[in-house]
Amino acid sequence: MDLLELFSFAFMATIKFAVLVPLYIVKEELPFWQGFLFGLVSGITGVLFFMYLSTGILIFWKAIVRKLWPTRKSKPTFSKRNRNLIGLKSKFGLWGIAFLSPLLLSLPLGCFLAVRYYKNPWRVFWTMSLGVAFWSAVYAGFGASIVNIINSIRA
User: Which residue, 16, 30, 75, 115, could crosslink 54 as a Cys pair with Cβ 3.0–4.6 Å?
Assistant: First the structure.
């Protein structure tokens, strides 16, 4: 296992968690606990990075809007995508965002939505981390099963 390869997979897994964590587990033939640890560390790193990046982007955007249009009240635009995201937030809440982010939404979008709609950063961090831990366990179990099948076919 090359250290540069490990870090590059971990970095890319922070962005596209659902694809790269199982791929790396199968590629390197990692046992369950090593695969779980890889997914957990890369996912939580991504959650921290994208939470702080999202917070900075939101602060920067509000400052620009206040500077360019000081008296104008911004009217919400309702596109189909916006309605779906608001529906996701109102139907499932923070837990839904946290558990769907590693699988469907991607960690950057999930962190952005969580930071945008929920103001308590510790609650957002721990909830998103639990979602990452759940999917890390699922992917590690799936990857370890595939590795065992491949090894039994080889023998």
Answer: 115
Q: Which long-range contacts (CB under 8 A, 24 or more apart) does 86-92 make?
A: 88/113, 89/113, 89/117
Q: Which two tokens stand for residue 127?
A: 């909830």
Residues 6+ apart with CB under 8 A from 98: 110, 114, 127, 128, 130, 131
Domain ranges of the chain: 52-68+80-145
Query: Could you report the per-residue pLDDT of 80-125, keeping only the tens digit for each?
Result: 777 777 777 778 888 988 998 888 888 888 888 888 888 898 999 9
- Give the pLDDT band of residue 75 (cuts 50, 70, 90): low
Q: What share of the chain is helix, strand, coil (3-state, %, to 5)?
A: 85, 0, 15
